[in-house]
Amino acid sequence: MSRIGVAFDKARADGRAVLVGCMPAGFPTVEGSIAAMTAMVEAGVDVVEVEIPYSDPVMDGPVIQRASDIALAGGVRTADTLRIIEAVAATGAPVVTMTYWNPIEQYGVDAFARDLASAGGTGLITPDLIPEEADEWLAASDAYGLDRTFLVSPSSTDARLAMTVSHCRGFVYATALMGVTGARTQTSDAAPLLVSRVRAVTDLPVGVGLGVSTGAQAGTVAGYADGVIVGSALVRCVLDAPDQAAGLTALRTLSADLAEGVRTP
Amino acid sequence: MSADALATPAGQFPDTAGHFGRFGGRFVPEALVAALDELDGAWRTAMTDESFQAEFGALLRDYAGTPSLLYSARRFSARIGARVLLKREDLNHTGAHKVRNVLGQALLTKRMGKTRVIAETGAGQHGVATATAAALFDLECVVYMGAVDIERQALNVARMRMLGATVVPVTAGSRTLKDAMNEAMRDWVANVDKTHYLIGTAAGPHPFPAMVRDFVRGIGDEARQQCLDLTGALPDAVTACVGGGSNALGIFHAFVGDPGVRLYGFEAGGAGVDTDRHAASITGGRSGVLHGTRTFVLQNADGQTVESHSISAGLDYPGVGPEHAWLHETGRATYLPVTDDEAMAAFELLCRTEGVIPAIESAHALAGTVAIAPKLAAELGREPVIVVNLSGRGDKDVHPAGDYFGILDKESAR
């Protein structure tokens, strides 16, 4: 079983959900992003999702897009992302990587899988890669023992849902809302239904993303999902902070609040 | 357009998943797959549905003003040593070939029971065309446009608003066409139930590249017959400018099966393909994934999209439709860059010899034609016959062209 799977099993045994916290690599700087993700782990984030910054992030809302732009303007390279993953994995928390497909295709799919595995990464979340186009990644992830998380959506048909989930390893990512990433005041009614549809076809744990920004919302999602995925709200802590210390403080506070939330479903 | 022309929607390519060789396909969020499947089904049904064909054909004829003329440009021909036949798409309603695509997609939108269309636009031409079709079909219309482009194209912004569209400025990234496309994609993911994304060129995820090609292929179907009627033979070459590439595919498609007809696509070479200021994705880019499809992309070593440049806003895009990538790789079509200066020289030549002001996009096709004419003549040992897709008219370009030639008085130059 993958390290992500172990984390989900342990949480399940504790009667709680896993907290997945997302941050773009190299935001606001390479060292700054390592400090941010380390602080998140120390404050209770179970799994870190490192997003490779990309020039055209169509599944991300304005907050993550701005953070990605800052990282790219700072000159972060794909190779830096691997270094960041290695540093964050050293905290002991499983690290999963979220990436649009073109940076991987340009690095070389097999080469990236090899280097990701050797950096201690567990696998990839691929928001713009569907299994039908993923032959090269399916082979590379098998070769290097990496997890594959494809997305499922409320609009996925039953047949597509089953097909997509059959290609997943580690966990399944359920996009709770029809929309892009970003904190919302209410999470979606469609999410519980989507999670139950996924559970009907797999034993893999299901993480729910898009929209969670408070401990209370995390608690609601933890009531029906195995994992609560939080991105924009965490990124905003760093974006809105006047300096690095304040950003880390805000990150710790929110991470702790969310960690409390996933323990009180 | 004849019923026969519409009877084979996809021809022999792409495959059912939208692949042109190793190009094309779908690189999209799962949330869009259901909508793309729905669109794929609606398109395939419509292409063989007689009532759709009749309605589309009537609109093209009575509203858009097609078939467009094939005009023998004698004075221009005499200057360049080739017999040039201009496919006058500039005379269509709204001033370009794009009206064919928007009418087709707006009809499909109605058939799918959707009530809202969104579009991206660079110079504003596709935005105006979409707003036009939305007005005609009583659809809500939202157009995403880069904040930089909104400033550069105030008149087209006003035209869209007159037609009832909402123009949304995009302030993310480079604030130009590619960012407008990202924003439209985000809107579509969130509102896909009632919204159709009316993509303006033969790019994006399947079925857009093949579907858009099918809606504009009448250009080539008409031109092929018109050339036979006029000259008694097929042309030696067919030329077009290539940004996303819809006008080029539209005129190429009918000739792909004619081995004697050379196909040339002219990309925007900007300040030169040896500089970093151009938009020649095939000549100067490499294979990658952008906006839902695998194609040639202007990108850095890490796969980050780089900004394109062209004097023509309509060609100023860092990708190209996947069918062009495939036609290039198979060698069926030849793609060459044309610089800003070469395009503007041809722009002036057409103005002065024929009394026709072309779109700067189309001036790239003219300039490329000027460049290949002597080689073709030498190869054939006679004057070549070349059909050029004059894809749009230059009214929209009076300001940039006036600037370029330094012929605006101080007041009109702002």
From TrEMBL, chain A:
Summary of subunit composition and partner proteins: Tetramer of two alpha and two beta chains.
Catalytic site positions: E49, D60
The protein's annotated pathway: Amino-acid biosynthesis; L-tryptophan biosynthesis; L-tryptophan from chorismate: step 5/5
Organism: Micromonospora endolithica
Catalytic reactions of this protein: (1S,2R)-1-C-(indol-3-yl)glycerol 3-phosphate + L-serine = D-glyceraldehyde 3-phosphate + L-tryptophan + H2O
GO molecular function: tryptophan synthase activity
Family annotation (HAMAP family): Trp_synth_alpha (MF_00131)
Similarity comment: family membership: Belongs to the TrpA family.
Keywords of this entry: Amino-acid biosynthesis, Aromatic amino acid biosynthesis, Lyase, Tryptophan biosynthesis
UniProt keyword Amino-acid biosynthesis, yes or no: yes
EC number: 4.2.1.20
Function, in words: The alpha subunit is responsible for the aldol cleavage of indoleglycerol phosphate to indole and glyceraldehyde 3-phosphate.
The keyword Amino-acid biosynthesis appears for this protein: yes
Encoding gene, per UniProt annotation: trpA
Protein name (database record): Tryptophan synthase alpha chain
The organism's place on the tree of life at top rank: Bacteria
From TrEMBL, chain B:
Catalytic activity: (1S,2R)-1-C-(indol-3-yl)glycerol 3-phosphate + L-serine = D-glyceraldehyde 3-phosphate + L-tryptophan + H2O
Amino-acid biosynthesis as UniProt keyword: yes
Any one GO molecular-function label of the UniProt entry: tryptophan synthase activity
SUPFAM superfamilies named among the record's database cross-references: Tryptophan synthase beta subunit-like PLP-dependent enzymes
GO CC terms: cytoplasm
Annotated pathway: Amino-acid biosynthesis; L-tryptophan biosynthesis; L-tryptophan from chorismate: step 5/5
Modified residues (N6-(pyridoxal phosphate)lysine): K98
One Pfam family cited in the UniProt record for this chain: PALP
Domain Tryptophan synthase beta chain-like PALP residue range list: 66-392
Swiss-Prot/TrEMBL keywords: Amino-acid biosynthesis, Aromatic amino acid biosynthesis, Lyase, Pyridoxal phosphate, Tryptophan biosynthesis
InterPro entries: Trp_synth_beta (IPR006654), Trp_synth_beta/beta-like (IPR023026), TrpB-like_PALP (IPR001926), TrpB-like_PALP_sf (IPR036052)
EC number assigned by the record: 4.2.1.20
Cofactors named for this entry: pyridoxal 5'-phosphate
Binding partners and assembly: Tetramer of two alpha and two beta chains.
Functional description taken from the UniProt entry: The beta subunit is responsible for the synthesis of L-tryptophan from indole and L-serine.
HAMAP family associated with the record: Trp_synth_beta (MF_00133)
Family label: Belongs to the TrpB family.
Name of the protein in its database record: Tryptophan synthase beta chain
Organism of derivation: Micromonospora endolithica
Gene: trpB
